[in-house]
Amino acid sequence: MKSRTKIVYAAIAAISAAGLLTGCGAGSDTGSSDGKTKIVVAIDTGLQQSAKDAFQTQVTAFEKANPNITVTSREYTWTGTTFAAELAGGTLPDVFTIPFTDGKSLIQQQQIADISGLVSKLPYADKFNPNVVKNGENADGKIQAVPIAAYGQALHYNRDLFKQAGLNPDSPPTTWDEVRADAKQIAEKTGKAGYATMTQSNTGGWILTTLAYAMGGRAESDGGEKTQATVATAPFEKALTLLHDMRWKDNSMGGNFLYDWNGINQAFASGQIGMYVSGGGNYGSLVSQNQIDPKSYGETVLPLTGEDAGALGGGTLAAVSAKATPDQQAAAVKWIDFYYMQKLFNQADAQRDAKTLAASGQPVGAPQVPVFDKATYQKTVEWTKEWINVPVEQMKPYTDQQFDQTIIPEPAKSTQVLYGLLDPVVQAVLTNENADPAKLLSDAQQQIQAKLDSGK
Q: Tens of pLDDT along 47-76?
């Protein structure tokens, strides 16, 4: 998923602006006219003017460096329930982002352009984190979708609500029992939701899987010839029971049980939620799209319990439309390299990007899982420290421990289908006090297994 793709994040993905330039229809109409190659690039929806200004600066710099390319933009945010229709209808931009979970299937079905030959010529093509880049590799091990961001899940919390509830925001919960207790105290003292969770557009299943992984579970097991669904297991039931009890016994989850990624970000940024789980790099979206007050933000690692517990991880790939012409594909890879990648690898570009973002009030320095390696990531932090403007101290409960946590990849097969089939399971537990977690999970497992067996 994103951090949320997305997370870009979502988002977790590199985010800049929405609707700044005049967009075309489905991709570019001709791809080249006036001697220039035209490409349409994806921009997240709902961003603030300052983010649009930052994007304009980047476009101007790119077009100056590439005078034969013209870049226009179109608002786009990957959503599990609409992406397939956009893909089939040919309405995607020439350059768009997808979650790690979609990479392999789109490549196998030849639904995105094969840019592997172009990517192989980039100076860092052999330097990616192998656990990250594999999500965009084709059957020959060549990079056909470029990883631009990666994340591990985190617990985000509102420091103001912690203070109002008599809790110490510098000592966030470290166990799920403490999460539950703090959520109850926040709800009782402030009248706000102490804890909330996503439930629709495949995000309910995404976060339920996150909780189960943090409790030692896995959604699938690979037996070689056959992948077996494993959601009807103790960790998933434990995670679902936790949500049930916070909702019905503690009354600590508020009254909205139909959040998606955008909706929960908005509610959290406006001070309606004490805690929620999403990608570790989600702060950028909360600023650029939701105008969160930085002073209210806190972040910590997920509590891990159980022998095989880990933080679910994912990320974002940049892909190119299968309808793009060869010239557009070449231009698209140049854009991906310039806009997404150089700032992660090259000192001058990292500083240029950080300076541009900081000048327009956009966040610089939000934590993320390295796309390359930890050493390269730490170099970029050092290169850009002059412009880091995120509340670093308020993120220390996360950044001090993020590299100590095991990152567990998302389920490898039929991932979005699996998440989608778990959405109603989460919704049922939150809307029906008598819902039976074990029965819900057993029924969902049968449905997921049928999809796995059919290869869909």
A: 888 888 888 889 999 999 999 999 999 889
174-182, long-range: CB < 8 A, 24+ apart: 174/300, 174/303, 175/303, 175/305, 176/214, 176/215, 176/242, 176/303, 176/305, 178/303, 179/155, 179/275, 179/303, 180/242, 180/245, 180/246, 180/250, 180/252, 182/274, 182/275
- pLDDT tens for each residue of 101-117: 899 889 999 999 999 99
Q: What angle do CA 444, 252, 438 make, to 5 degrees?
A: 20
Average pLDDT over residues 228-253: 98
User: Which residues are paired to 72 by β-bridges?
Assistant: 40
Architecture of domain 152-313+410-454: 3-Layer(aba) Sandwich (3.40)
- The answer to whether the CB of 20 falls within 8 A of the CB of 26 is no
Q: Could you say which DSSP state residue 386 is in?
A: T
As a whole number of angstroms, the distance between CA 349 and CA 8 comes to: 20
How many whole angstroms from its chain centre is CA 293? 21
Residue spans of alpha helices (H) in 199-346: 203-214, 234-248, 261-269, 283-288, 326-335
Cα–Cα distance between 73 and 62 in angstroms, integer?
14
Query: What's the rounded Cα separation, in Å, for the pair 218 and 410?
Result: 9
Q: How far apart are CA 392 and CA 400, in angstroms?
A: 11
* DSSP secondary structure letters along 322-368: TT--HHHHHHHHHHIIIIIIGGGT-HHHHHHHHHHHHHTT-------
Tell me how many degrees the CA angle 280-210-92 measures, rounded to the nearest 5. 70
Rounded CA separation 343/336 (Å): 11
Domain locations in the chain as residue ranges:
152-313+410-454
Classified as helix, coil or strand, 256 is coil
To the nearest 10 degrees (0 to 180), the angle between helices 415-431 and 203-214 is: 90
